[in-house]
Design a protein that fits this description.
Distance between the termini: 77 Å
Largest sheet: 4 strands, mixed
Shape: globular
Number of helices: 9
Order of helices and strands: HHHEEEEEEEEEEHEHHEEEHHH
Strand content: 5-15%
Number of strands: 14
Strand order of the largest sheet: 4-3-6-5
Length: 427
C-alpha cells in the first residue's frame, strides 16, 4: 500500500509538471486562487482581519506581487520594494498597469533659489498596504472627481479578491453559473482561455463587476480586454500590446465608464477634465496616429504605428479578435481604425507610473528629449540652463528612460515633444 501511494504521488506530480490534465496550474488559474494563499486558519497576520496573511488586503496581495530583491522585470510583480530603490534608481517592473514603486519616488529640486517637491504620491493610485510601506494619499481625501475615500483604497477596490465574476459562453458576465476553468485574461489561440458550454472563464484581471461595492461606490460592469501571457518585460525592443475592447454582451461596460465608478466628475463638462472618452477617434486622429513616428517625422505607416505608450480601444466586442491582438513580440502593430476609441487608459496607467497622475508619458515640459538624450539632471545639454531643474524635475536620464519602459532616447527625435502629438500631430 505504501508503494502504491508513493507511485500515485509520483504520477500526480508528473501529470502536473507536464500539464497532462489540460489545465494551467498558476495561482490565479481558476479565476482566483487557493484560499490558503491569502488566508491562514491558525496563523493569520497579527493585527489584521479576515484571517489574512497580511495586515490588510493590499499587503496580502503584495505578499506575492512585490518581493524585495527582485531584479525585475519579473512575471506577475506589480511593485518594486523600497529596499530595491534609492536615489537615481528607478522601479524595475514594466507591467502594463505600471509599477507601484513609483509612489515611493519623491523628487526634490531647486531652481532660481526656490525648492520644489514632486511627491511620490502624485504618481498613481495610493493603495494602503501597511506591510509594504504604502500609505494613504497625503493630500486627497477622496478620489479626484469622486467620493471614494482615499483611506480605503486597496487592490481589492478594483479587483474582486474572490474572482466571482465570470464570462459565460454567451458573452454574458455573471457571478454564478458555469464554473470558472481559467483566467480568461490571456490572448493567443488556445481554447483553454475561452468559455465553453460547460465552463466559464474569469473576467479580465479579476476586475470588479456589476454590483461590486467598495467605499460607497458600486461598479456597473466589467470592461473587455486581453493581454499576452508574458506581459512584464522591457519594451526597449518589443512592445507589450494589451488589446482593450469596447462593451459587449450583458454585464460589460466601456473602460472609461468603469473608471468613472470612482471618478465620475472626470467625465462631465462641469468636472475637472473634458477630454472625450469612449468616442470614435475619427479619420483625422486615426490618420495622424498612423503616420506619426516622432517629432518632425510623419512618414510612418498605419500598419506599424501602434505605440503602447498611447494605446486605444479596438472597436470590437469579440474576445477572439482581442486575443489575436494581445502580443508581446511586435507582430501586431497596426494603428487604429476611425471607429476605434480613446479611453482613460490611452493616457494613464492603472496603477502608477514615472509621471504625475499615472500618465504614460510626461506632459510637464515641452520636450521629452534634449539633444538626443532624455531630460535629466545628468543631461550635458541642460547643465547651463537655470531652468533645467524645472524641466528634468530631479530625475536622471536613466529614470526617464525607465518611465518610458526602457525605450532608448534615440527612438525619438533629437528634440522630441510630448506624446499628445501621437494623436494630434501639432509638433
Amino acid at each position: 500500500m505504501k508503494g502504491l501511494r508513493l507511485s500515485l504521488m509520483v504520477l500526480t506530480a508528473t501529470m502536473l509538471a507536464l500539464g497532462l490534465s489540460g489545465m494551467a496550474y498558476a495561482f490565479h488559474s481558476g479565476g482566483v486562487a487557493e484560499c490558503e494563499g491569502c488566508h491562514s486558519m491558525h496563523t493569520p497576520k497579527a493585527g489584521g482581519s479576515f484571517l489574512l496573511v497580511g495586515t490588510d488586503q493590499s499587503s496580502t496581495c503584495l505578499s506575492c506581487h512585490e518581493h524585495a530583491g527582485d531584479t525585475g522585470p519579473s512575471s506577475y510583480h506589480v511593485g518594486t520594494a523600497q529596499a530595491d530603490l534609492g536615489p537615481s534608481i528607478p522601479p524595475k517592473q514594466r507591467t502594463p498597469g505600471g509599477d507601484f514603486g513609483w509612489l515611493r519616488k519623491t523628487y526634490t529640486y531647486t531652481a532660481s533659489g526656490s525648492t520644489y517637491t514632486e511627491d511620490g504620491a502624485t504618481h498613481g493610485h495610493n493603495i494602503v498596504a501597511v506591510d509594504n510601506g504604502y500609505v494613504v494619499d497625503p493630500t486627497k481625501a477622496t478620489a479626484p472627481g469622486g467620493t471614494f475615500p482615499s483611506n480605503q483604497l486597496a487592490c481589492t477596490s478594483c479587483h474582486d479578491p474572490h474572482g466571482q465574476f465570470r464570462r459565460l459562453q454567451s458573452g454574458t458576465i455573471a457571478k454564478t453559473g458555469a464554473p470558472i476553468k481559467a483566467s480568461g485574461s490571456y490572448g493567443g489561440t488556445s481554447t483553454a482561455n475561452e468559455p465553453d458550454a460547460a465552463n466559464a472563464v474569469g473576467v479580465y484581471r479579476l476586475l470588479a463587476g456589476s454590483g461590486y461595492t467598495k467605499g460607497g461606490v458600486t461598479f456597473n460592469g466589467v470592461p473587455a480586454a486581453k493581454v499576452p501571457s508574458t506581459y512584464n518585460q522591457t519594451e526597449a525592443t518589443n512592445q507589450v500590446r494589451v488589446a482593450y475592447g469596447v462593451s459587449a454582451a450583458s454585464g460589460h461596460v466601456t473602460w472609461s465608464n468603469w473608471c468613472a465608478t470612482c471618478h465620475p466628475a472626470m467625465h462631465t463638462t462641469g468636472g475637472n477634465i473634458v477630454h472625450p472618452v469612449d468616442q470614435n477617434l475619427g479619420s483625422e486622429v486615426a490618420t495622424a496616429y498612423g503616420l506619426y513616428v516622432k517629432s518632425g517625422d510623419m512618414a510612418g505607416t498605419a500598419a506599424t504605428s501602434f505605440l503602447s505608450l498611447v494605446p486605444f480601444a479596438t472597436n470590437s466586442s469579440s474576445y477572439t479578435t482581442l486575443a489575436g491582438l494581445a502580443v508581446n513580440n511586435n507582430s501586431q502593430l497596426g494603428g487604429p481604425a476611425t471607429n476605434d476609441q480613446v479611453i482613460c487608459l490611452s493616457c494613464h496607467r492603472a496603477h502608477a507610473s514615472g509621471m504625475v497622475e499615472a500618465l504614460r508619458f510626461d506632459n510637464g515640459y515641452e520636450f521629452m528629449t534634449v539633444n538626443s538624450n532624455y531630460l535629466g539632471s545628468d543631461n550635458p545639454s541642460m547643465m547651463t540652463s537655470s531652468r533645467a531643474p524645472l524641466q528634468h524635475r530631479g530625475r536622471t536620464m536613466a529614470e526617464w528612460q525607465a518611465a518610458y519602459y526602457d525605450r532608448p532616447a534615440t527612438r525619438w527625435a533629437t528634440y522630441q515633444r510630448v506624446l499628445c502629438n501621437k494623436c494630434h500631430a501639432k509638433d
